[in-house]
Amino acid sequence: MKLHVRITLAAILLLIAVPGSASPGNFRFGAEWGVLYNFISLEKSTFITADRYLVESSNVVRENHINGMLTVSAGYDIRNRVCISLCSGYLGAKKGERMVPLTLRTTVRLTRNPEDAGSLVFIESGAGFRKSSQISLLYRAGYGYRIPITGSVAVNVNASALFSLSHPDVYDKYSNQMVSKKNLGMSRAFNSGILLSLAIVF
Questions:
Q1: Helix (H, G, I), strand (E, B) or coil at 15
Q2: Is 100 left (phi over 0), alpha (psi -120 to 50) or beta?
Q3: Can you tell me whether residue 168 is helix, strand or coil?
Q4: Which of 2, 5, 13, 37 is deepest in the core (most CB within 10 A)?
């Protein structure tokens, strides 16, 4: 089993083990909109130029770029204060990389009564799908505050760190064009950013 899968499973089990009623709760649905500030990417690539030279590149890129995120989720309270959700939608992971995420999120509400206003924490991991590219890996961890609107509807204000391992397109500065798929050996980027979001849940 790969290391990132082990880490994800261990974190989920740790959150599930928090004290609380073992009785299952309700189905939960939601929509989340956010702004992602990418601040650094570690990029590595190899490709063959038009003149048949091998180029290897490794860079630390300061992104300073803002992207958007819009997702919907469906989940279930497996414990009184713990919800497991499946999330998908749209994500701008970094400059020039827009993908469809599919992630699993574990949320723990920290109040004694899970429907009250109060703090929550969450972790999330999964994959990002992008046309004509390899599957990306996504990891997210954050803190939120629940604001009840009605008995079953609430708004969550969230702040989180988002990390992704993606496979961006590569620019060939020698020919002033993007590297074709047949000439691309490897393209990998580890991206990090801060995501601020609002979610409506019910």
A1: helix
A2: beta
A3: coil
A4: 37
Give how far the C-alpha of residue 44 lies from the chain's centroid of Cα atoms, to the nearest Å: 21
9 contacts: CB under 8 Å, gap ≥ 6: none
159 pLDDT more than 90: yes
Cβ–Cβ under 8 Å, residues 115 and 134? no
35-39, 110-114, 125-129, 186-190: segment of lowest average pLDDT: 110-114
The two structure tokens encoding residue 10: 């261990």
**Any idea what the Cα angle at residue 110 is, between residues 109 and 113, rounded to 5°?**
80
Q: What is the DSSP letter of 195?
A: E
DSSP-based helix, strand, coil % in the chain, nearest 5? 10, 65, 30
Per-residue confidence (pLDDT) for residue 182, from 0 to 100: 87
| List of residues 6+ apart from 23 with CB closer than 8 A | 79, 80
In the structure, what pLDDT confidence band is assigned to residue 79 with cuts at 50, 70 and 90?
confident
pTM beyond cutoff 0.90: no
- Strand, coil or helix: 94: strand
What distance in Å separates the CA atoms of residue 9 and residue 119, rounded to the nearest whole number?
Answer: 23
**What integer is the mean pLDDT of 136-154?**
94
- CA 185 to CA 54: how far, in whole Å? 9
Specify whether the CB–CB gap between 159 and 144 falls below 8 A: yes
